[in-house]
Design goal:
Layout: E1 10-18, E2 24-32, H1 38-65, E3 71-76
Parallel strand pairs: 2-3
Antiparallel strand pairs: 1-2
């Protein structure tokens, strides 16, 4: 698992593991604290995205070091609020 977020206003969790087919699956989640206003949340999205991408890169390297040949990234964002257009360069988020 990637290093936890250091922001007091949001948490970024990034975890990688092999699935039964041998695919390295990176699961991610961004959670804003309940007390963070919508305005402040909008201001923090850029920092949270950067931290998210850094975590994905770290887990990708870890997977490669463990022999991964294929990777799938999953963003837990049910309402598509955090990244409504999908992640650039990663295609469709599953």
């Amino acid at each position: 698992m990637s290093e936890p977020s250091t922001s007091p206003e949001f948490t970024v969790a990034v975890e990688g593991a092999f699935d039964e087919a041998g695919v390295w699956v990176i699961t991610t989640r961004v959670t804003f604290r309940r007390k963070v206003s919508e305005k402040r949340r909008a201001e923090l999205v850029g920092a949270a995205r950067l931290e998210l991408l850094e975590g994905i890169a770290r887990e990708g390297l870890r997977g490669r070091s463990l022999g991964a040949k294929e990777v799938r990234v999953s963003l837990d964002d049910p309402g598509r609020e955090f990244w409504p257009e999908g992640m650039p360069g990663l295609g469709t988020i599953q």
